[in-house]
Design a protein that fits this description.
Radius of gyration: 19 Å
Shape: flat
Order of helices and strands: HEEHEHEEHEEHEEHEE
Distance between the termini: 8 Å
Helix content: 25-40%
Number of strands: 11
Oligomer: single chain
Largest sheet: 4 strands, mixed
Length: 218
């Protein structure tokens, strides 16, 4: 990939945020230092905050994204109404067992808790509510149950999945496991590969949490 200056990245980030109709970028600003992008400003929905982060992550040359966006809702939704809608969404989520996940809502901030069997179910619960009207923030405190996997199994299962997903020359990810908490370090070539690597780790049986310490290669 050709060398990209901070100015190149900043220009593309602003253009992308302005281009995507899902984000109102009128009150957003972007600064870039050494490939690390900081997005600041205000939006009127949590969904826009997450979309802004996703858009900037995909720009070539971006090493890290720091999001300092405030969610200021134009028309607030009562916590009781939002809580009812969130619980309804969780009940209808395709991959969640009945009553496995509960939610608490305080001033629009949703906190998810409970226990599921797989990492992808934890993510599915978050996806079910993050784009709802009235959500100003989200904390995913759902835990993943121990399915009997030992540390060695977790590590070897993740490494096997990464071998299936990457060419041999792209194997620069290091996997370590401490009490069912997986730490991913090393380098990947893009944010897309970083996303795939995190998903691979979450899909391993027995994983309780995934710490992302990976860097995007220059």
């Amino acid at each position: 990939m050709p060398f990209r200056t901070d100015s190149d990245i900043q220009r593309d980030a602003l253009d992308e945020l302005t281009w995507d109709a899902a984000v109102d970028a009128r009150n957003l600003g972007v600064t870039v230092v050494g490939g690390i992008v900081t997005i600041t400003g205000q939006v009127d929905a949590y969904a826009q905050k997450r979309e802004a982060e996703r858009l900037v992550e995909m720009i070539p040359g971006v090493k890290e994204v720091i999001v300092k966006i405030d969610v200021i809702t134009v028309r607030a939704v009562a916590d009781a109404d939002l809580s009812a809608a969130v619980h309804n969404a969780l009940n209808w989520a395709a991959y969640l067992p009945d009553a496995a996940v509960s939610a608490r809502v305080e001033e629009g901030w949703v906190t998810l808790s409970g226990t599921v069997q797989w990492g992808f179910q934890r993510q599915n619960a978050e996806d079910a509510v993050r784009y709802m009207k009235g959500v100003t923030g989200l904390t995913n405190a759902i835990t993943v149950a121990n399915r009997g996997a030992v540390v060695g199994d977790i590590k070897s299962n993740i490494e096997a999945a990464l071998r299936r997903h990457y060419d041999a020359q792209d194997q620069h990810v290091l996997v370590s496991v401490d009490d069912r908490v997986v730490t991913l370090s090393g380098t990947v070539s893009s944010w897309w590969h970083r996303y795939l690597t995190r998903n691979s780790a979450w899909n391993a049986p027995g994983v309780e949490d995934v710490l992302d310490r990976m860097r995007i290669s220059d």
